[in-house]
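new request in #modeling-help
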Amino acid sequence: MNNLTFGLTMLVVGMGGTLATLLLITVLIRVLVACFPVRPEHPDGGK
Amino acid sequence: MIETMLQAMESLFEGVRFLGTQGLPNVIMIAVAGIMFWLAAGKGVEPLLLLPIAFGCLLVNLPLSEVMAADGVLKTLYDFGIGNELFPLLIFVGIGSMTDFTPLLANPRLLLFGAAGQLGIFITLMLALALGFSKEEAVSVAAIGACDGPTVIYVSNMFAGLDKIPTAMVGALAVAAYSYMALVPVIQPPIMRLLTTRREREVKMPSPKGQISRTALIAFPIVVTILTGIVAPKGLPLMGMIMLGNFMKMTGVVPRLSHAAENEIANIATLFLGLAIGGTMAGSQFLTRETLMVFGLGLVAITIDTVGGVLLGKIWYLLSGGKVNPLVGASGISAYPMAARLVQSEGQRWNKQNFLLMHAMAANTGGQIGSVMAAAIMLSILKGMGII
């Protein structure tokens, strides 16, 4: 594999893969925050 | 008997004779160590790492030094924790323990700045290949764009272990990476000002609303670890260790381990790593054209990282109708929390009412994840290509 092919592959797949994975993590964070919301404190201290 | 005594005395001056005849590279490197001492101790530039690196550099360049010989103290440290990539990973456990992902979970879209902040890695890779570096050398140099010392050492040392790059290059890469990380407050502001208008810099961003539950904060490092293991298993040690440290901190049930990770373990690993890296800086191997090119490309990498982040910020500014301050994009690198504080102070410089810190912290922790993910993905691609 020549250097140009290698470099372009790393640029496209590497940068694209990083972006796609971080996008996926963004979605997963939203799912986590939705699944585990902050529970409001009970006015009488939970009794 | 007198002859024996003269011979014995003569042996005491062998070092001086060595310096006089073939020791010019050593003298230069001792001067370099002196500059690093001044930067670390006098100017406070990344002293935790630069100080031991400088001392290791001094030790290895003293005439007839045997610290990097087969059983030398620095060679032993190198084999014990650099040759097998242990020390960078231990430091990552500590970094994970020191990191708070709450701002990121409160504003997850800012994680995308952590992707833009890695643009320098891939552009520098292309440049390094164009300048004649081998594929493995180019990847190692490009890793400086991660703005993350342990990642640079981890990636480059993997190639050094396979004899794909010279060991001395690991030292040059580490020093370049830590130097430029320390110089982020010098490198970034001119680029931020050059690429943005005053109106953009003055944009106020409201504080993120909503709290994050403890359960979500505990689950986050596990989710990221599993995802990395599936997408980029070659980088799992890097991401796994940083997330282990964060998991221990967030659960709150192992305060002793968490405290040890961010103090004793990180400190010991930092000291040994610095010394061993300094030990790779022997003048005869370090003073090459490639070393100068490494430093030049490292600067390019961090500059392009900043450009990538700010340009994404400008696009976001336009798409959001002027609600996102493009300066926040500059914090999408791994230099934590320095980059975030820099964005905060730069934002306040143009608008005293502006508090960008929480947004910048989110982008900055996103940069930490992004840099490790980019390295993990690069390693997995290389494995797929059969290069490692």
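bot summary: Chain B is about 75% helix and 0% strand.
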